[in-house]
Amino acid sequence: MSNIVKEVLSANEEYVKKFDGKGNLSMPPQKRFAILTCMDARLVPSKFAGLAEGDAHVIRNAGGRASDDVIRSLVISYKLLGTREWFVIHHSDCGMETFNNEIIANLLQSSLKTAKIDENGWSDPGNGNGTADGKFVEWLTIKNQKQSVLEDVQRIRNNSMVPNNIPIYGYIYDCKTGKLLEVSEATEAGKVE
Amino acid sequence: MSNIVKEVLSANEEYVKKFDGKGNLSMPPQKRFAILTCMDARLVPSKFAGLAEGDAHVIRNAGGRASDDVIRSLVISYKLLGTREWFVIHHSDCGMETFNNEIIANLLQSSLKTAKIDENGWSDPGNGNGTADGKFVEWLTIKNQKQSVLEDVQRIRNNSMVPNNIPIYGYIYDCKTGKLLEVSEATEAGKVE
């Protein structure tokens, strides 16, 4: 068992000891909203948005992008589990701003030896072989955070499975301060008609 | 501004006040691992797995399923940001066990008036019109949690962009107790060769 697994299971043991009445929480989010945000390790939605267990759905991927998989999750969130307001939250200093489709496709093809992480002294695990498959993926990188929040809110708003009367709010989380900064153009684009 | 937005921003204000030195955290996850889990409101990975800001990537969607968007995120996670171990964590009492592709497609088509959430006395927002688009989506519902964890670990393991030497661990989070229960067949399928 790796040290990481040991750490996670040990932290989980402590959590279980203080779990108390949380075993009776019901499945639908009590506060009836959902947050889409980035997988970034510095973002802890339960802390920066004040969520207790049972409050809200949290959907996360690289960039907090409104992919088809996110639309799938949001439609399930409102349709079967009752959420009625959604937040799209990207953040400053995002990894998705540091590369583009071509860069990652080339990294994956060149037997994985030249990854950016080498700057930190980390070895790249590689798999011995490069793969061209990265060229067939849209990586959803970001050039401008305000623009990406706006685009993602618009994409969700315009999806045929998303009802008109769910407001969608656009924000950027500032990694330097922990503060949520509204992207007013995005919230405007996501408003209820 | 809705009450929910007010609540979130007010909680965020409190968080900012105690943010301290967290503004200096670097982009790559310090503990070099990633968790894939469900968007379910009862699951708070930072608490059940003991994660502080900066520790680990957290990827979440409906079911914690290994969709293409998750593969995109995991490949970025290891290739550009240095994670070296991954957890796939589904959970008991998951909403994804309560319907199937046909049920949600029909709900979306029948002008959204008969959703399951009506049992809780909630009105369905609908949008006045049904849509057939739900029939074209694979919703990734779950029949058996152990089986879905195994399948998802296998799908990630077998992806050509995933290196052979990243171990993938399979777990089910028990919503009644908060405990992480290993799915040993999945961890076995995700082991380093």
How many beta-strand runs of chain A? 5
Q: Give the low-pLDDT segments of chain A.
A: 113-119
Any idea what the radius of gyration of chain A is? Answer: 19 Å
Shape designation of chain A: globular
Strand content of chain A: 5-15%
Write down the overall mean pLDDT of chain A: 92
- CATH topology annotation of the largest domain in chain A: Beta-carbonic Anhydrase, Chain A
Biggest interface: chains and residue counts?
A-B, 104 and 104 residues
Largest sheet of chain A: 5 strands, mixed
The number of domains of chain A = 2
Task: Please write out the topology.
Two copies of one chain form a homodimer.
Chain A: H1 3-17, E1 33-38, H2 45-48, E2 56-61, H3 68-79, E3 85-91, H4 101-109, H5 145-157, E4 168-173, E5 180-182, H6 184-189
Parallel strand pairs in A: 1-2, 1-3, 3-4
Antiparallel strand pairs in A: 4-5
Looking at this protein, list some descriptive labels.
Beta-carbonic Anhydrase, Chain A; five-stranded mixed sheet; globular; 5 strands; 2 domains; homodimer; 193 residues; alpha/beta
